[in-house]
Fold this protein.
Amino acid sequence: MSLDLLTFGEALVEVMRTTVDQPLDQPAPFIGPYPSGAPFIFAVQAARLGVRAAAIGAIGDDWFGKCQLRQLEHDGVDTRGVHILPGYTTGVAFIAYASDGSREYVFHARHAAAGQLNVALLDHDDTRALFDGLKCLHIMGSALSMSDGAYELGLRAVQIAREAGAKISFDPNIRPQLIDAARARTRFAPFVDAADVLMPTDAEALTLTGETELDFAVGRLFAGKPGRIVVIHRGKAGAVVFQRTADGVRADAIPAYAVEEIDPTGAGDCFAAGFLARWLAGDAPEVAARFGCACGALAVTKMGPMAGAHDLEAVQRFMGR
Ligand code: ATP
Ligand code: MG
């Protein structure tokens, strides 16, 4: 059966400190593994909303890989794009939370299976079949920043998706630990150019365009691309949807839902999955963004990378509260 949403990138498990203020340079308890990795959080959120979703990625032939696969199968995510790489272990993120809200990480990703993505994965029949009848390819800048192989896979995936008639969505997700702003601007240009939907933060919109004011940045993002949608997401401040109309650029501000933030991991991924699921189903962009905001808000209310990804009924109940 053809997919609604496809993405690619790092499959990880997360292992986190059991209480705050336990730095990672000392012995202390951890809890995990929890299946994670932004592209996989995205796919799981989409599947829980009842959308046909998959992520292309790589795991090791080990217990952490099994942990990831079991979760994907449990949620009905299509696993045909998940490759088991002999000789590599599954990626791991170790995370400690501090009481001021900051986080510390140790990533085992670039040298793990997660860091070995390459364009040849797209030659596997099972993986290539994910593009047949695909509605939308969603790309995350964080996944592109992991390795040259992932970047090349991204370029080719856009080409295949376009040939298949799919829409392209791009969340720049610029992670300063992975890529600096100037490099992100040049490296991400082909993906910005290809995108039917762009989902940057304010800062990312400025970085990608080289502008210093949002209005100019948005103007630039619409130059030669009148049909695209730009969705700026702003954490606790909600989101703004920009669309070009006959009278200029229309902006719809969507307030955030008020929730208590327990764990911010995955908000952007759940927001994107929620937005795209509703937009592909035919909702107007500003309506889809409200739904995305509900998914993003719910995402931060639970500890654990995928725990906050709620199903369709739960999101609708939350929105109607
Ligand atoms: P990530 O760290 O996953 O990359 P992000 O920066 O890409 O996150 P955000 O803009 O933080 O994504 O969050 C996406 C959406 O989720 C926001 O537009 C908002 O609607 C919702 N959201 C995020 N954090 C909160 C919060 N604390 N309270 C309410 N809603 C939130
Ligand atoms: Mg983000």
Remarks:
- The pocket of magnesium ion (ligand 2) is lined by residues 173, 268 (CB under 6 Å).
- The chain is about 35% helix and 25% strand.
- The first strand starts at residue 5 and ends at 8.
- Residues 174 and 180 are 8 Å apart (CA to CA).
